[in-house]
Amino acid sequence: MKLLFVGDLVGRAGREVLAKQLPKIQQQYNIDCTIVNGENAAHGKGITRRIYHQIKSLKVDAITMGNHTFSKGELLDFIDEAEILVRPMNLSPLHKGKSVLVLPVCGKRLAVVNLCGQVFMDRIERDPFECMQEILRDNPADLYFVDLHGETTSEKITFAHVFAKRCVGICGTHTHVQTADERILNGCGFISDTGMCGAWDSVLGRDKEEVIRHMVYHEATRYTIAEGPAVFCAVVITVNETTWRAEAIERIQIRP
Ligand SMILES: [Fe+2]
Ligand SMILES: [Fe+2]
User: Fold this and answer.
1) What is the pLDDT of residues 136-190, one digit of tens each?
2) pTM of the model as a whole
3) 2-254 sits in which CATH class?
4) What is the CA(17)–ligand 2 centre distance, in A?
5) How open is the CA angle 93-96-102, to the nearest 5 degrees?
6) Distance, CA 242 to ligand 1 centroid (Å)?
7) Residue 107 alpha carbon to ligand 2 centre in Å
8) Domain positions in the chain
């Protein structure tokens, strides 16, 4: 079983590079299940109905989110119909949409889980460790995959040490910078951060001139998303179909 997980799509550049690379990668790796982080898909913050359907139409099985989940108010109008959308369990508001999506993959029930880290993050109402215990207790499945959306590598690595034995994949998102620490930990494919799909000549997908004006000259700026050729970041996790444990994780980074 091959799982493909694609890091934060940032704006149009991210959506376009996804559409360009996804069919090739799905074919090349013989992917059985594709999960994409869409928290920045709509102009860098949140997701709209149109973009949700656009991503879904690319043979994506689950769309995970992050701290920007509710940045576009219109999500609340369609979240109950957005069957493949998974939002962080511990992010406020807590009771909109779902945080676990169980998918049939290769004859197994794969639970796709989305959680936010707590360290240096806003509006996180619950401890991700406690939430994960609850998910494992209340959502029976054969395999668990977690998109852990967090700022710090330490929190994500600690989470992996605690839950690796119960999961086939624990992949970090949110920093938009891919880390080179992918490994198999107790039968679980882990990476601290998967990286982003977004404009390469940018600051984390945002317009670099604007970020410079803000950081260096303290100007109030908008949230302008960078345009131009984009990087594509993802991982492929191979799950052994006898033991049903992960046996390989491969990092993908395609620069323009
Ligand atoms: Fe992000
Ligand atoms: Fe984020």
Assistant:
1) 999 999 999 999 999 999 999 999 999 999 999 999 999 999 999 999 999 999 9
2) 0.98
3) alpha beta
4) 19
5) 125
6) 35
7) 32
8) 2-254
Ligand nearest to the CA of 206: 1
Strands 2-6 and 230-239 turn out to be antiparallel
Residue 95 burial (CB < 10 Å; 0-12/13-18/19+)? exposed
Q: Is 68 a catalytic residue?
A: yes
**Exposure string (b/e) for 171-180, b if CB count within 10 Å is 16 or more?**
bbbbbbebbe
- Tell me the ligand closest to 10's alpha carbon: 1
**Ligand closest in space to the Cα of 176:** 1
Give buried/exposed letters for 233-254 (b at 16+ CB in 10 A, else e). bbbbbbbeeeeebbeebebbee
Tokens 């807590």 label which residue?
94
CA of 250 to the centre of ligand 2 (A): 23
Task: Give me ligand 1 centre to Cα 192, in Å.
Answer: 14
Catalytic residue (choose from 43, 68, 214, 218): 68
Q: Give percent above pLDDT 90 in the chain.
A: 99
* Rounded-to-integer distance, Cα 213 and Cα 217, Å: 5
Is there a contact between 234 and 4 (Cβ–Cβ < 8 Å)? yes
CA 132, CA 143: separation in Å to the nearest integer?
14
